[in-house]
Amino acid sequence: MAATVWEETLRMIHRRNLLIATAFAALLGIGNSAYAQQDPIRVGVLVGTSGASGQIGNWTNRGVEIAIEELNEAAGFQRFSMFSEDSEYKAQKGLEGFNKLTNVDGIDVLITSGSAVLPTIAPLADQRELVMMNVGAQSPAMAGIGKFTFSVIQLADFDIAVMANYAFDTLDFQRGAALYISNDIGQTNVVEFERQFTQLGGEMVAIESFRASDTNYGPQVAKIAAAQPDFVYLVGDVDVAAAATRQIKALMPNVQILTYGGMESQLFLDAAGAAAEGLLYTQTDFDPSSDDPAIAAVAQRYQTRYGEDFTSPFIGYAYDAMMVVAAALDAAGETGEPLRAAIMDRRDFPGITGDVVFRDDGTVSKSVIIKGVRDGAFVLVDRVGASE
User: Fold this and answer.
1) Looking at the structure, do residues 295 and 250 belong to the same domain, yes or no?
2) Which residue intervals define the domain Leucine-binding protein in the entry (predicted)?
3) What digits encode the pLDDT tens for the residues 343-386?
4) Which residue segment(s) compose the domain that 346 sits in?
5) 340: closest CA among 151, 147, 142?
6) pTM as predicted
7) Are 189 and 251 found together in one domain?
8) What is the mean pLDDT of residues 128-137?
9) CATH number for the domain that contains residue 381
10) Of 99, 94, 138, which is closest to residue 120 (Cα–Cα)?
11) Same domain for 348 and 331?
12) What is the 3-state secondary structure (H, E, C) of the chain?
């Protein structure tokens, strides 16, 4: 009987202490963070991790992983957890992955990419009041695509303007051609490039397209070669762009190929082989080997975790996106509309790929550089100014 009375007394003390602690936490406004130790913020990552562009998707996953690792260490508990799905950068697969992450995994925020994927899921994110961070889709159509969508990477219209100016002013090219994949992304990019290049005084002497399923670009390349351009502006997924690069160089060994940052992948180098030599492309002005303390710390964490050097800006975009979410959560206290409002209220966040300063349409400005392939490696070629 004595033991029973003693146990009941302990239970009463425990209940009283729990009530006092709960009331004190509520008084200080720390209830949410206390519960966060038991219920982490669920971060979804929806990117293509298989197929020709899978390396970019895997870099994205790793960028989020090391950011979460750092944030959880700083908090002293598991503040964030991560759930990832493979979109293959395709609209239908992206929709399936979005439904899995939201309906099954119950994510609180989404980090994603893919210019074919975002138009499908952005309206759904708005309906759910789910903040989405775009870390790779650069189509100009991403501007204002959703109230809850924010891009930490600059969109392609500025990159295209930089490349058109570089071709005309620096390389002194007058006659251009384009070969592009016949989808919305390819068409949008080529239309914008033609507009920018012709405004400068250049001429687009040939513009040809191909289907994603094509493997032979001979007829298109022959028409381009007959027009005798100074360069070919190439738009396509990594695998088809690599095949097109080989066929362009086989018929026009001295022509300059210009493209964009999505080609910065070992998969592209391996598939294009020697034909990639001399290719030029735009990329965010970001040096992962910098001795800047913030970049160096992330690079060291990445090398420690994965046993590889930190080489890609796509790792940095994902890391920055996660850090923006965490900083905004500190102010908002919860996800959904409060998180979106906190991002827009602050707007300006530090980032290892450059400051993340959001415009009203959820897009950002970043400095852009010209990079190229030299001796089978991606190297810096020239620097240009920041976007406005």
Assistant:
1) no
2) 40-371
3) 999 999 999 999 999 999 999 988 889 999 999 999 999 987 55
4) 36-155+288-366
5) 147
6) 0.80
7) yes
8) 97
9) 3.40.50.2300
10) 94
11) yes
12) CHHHHHHHHHHHHHHHHHHHHHHHHHHHCCHHHHHHCCCCEEEEEEECCCCCCHHHHHHHHHHHHHHHHHHHHHHCCCCEEEEEEECCCCHHHHHHHHHHHHHHCCCCEEEECCCCCHHHHHHHHHHHCCEEEECCCCCHHHCCCCCCEEECCCCHHHHHHHHHHHHHHHCCCCEEEEEEECCHHHHHHHHHHHHHHHHHCCEEEEEEEECCCCCCCHHHHHHHHHCCCCEEEEECCHHHHHHHHHHHHHHCCCCEEEECHHHCCHHHHHHHHHHHCCCEEEEECCCCCCCCHHHHHHHHHHHHHHCCCCCCHHHHHHHHHHHHHHHHHHHHCCCCHHHHHHHHHHCEECCCCCCEEECCCCCECCEEEEEEEECCEEEEEEEEEECC
What type of residue sits at position 230?
A: D
Q: Are residues 122 and 189 in the same domain?
A: no
pLDDT in tens, 281-313: 999 888 888 899 999 999 999 999 999 999 899
Is 147 found in the same domain as 66? yes
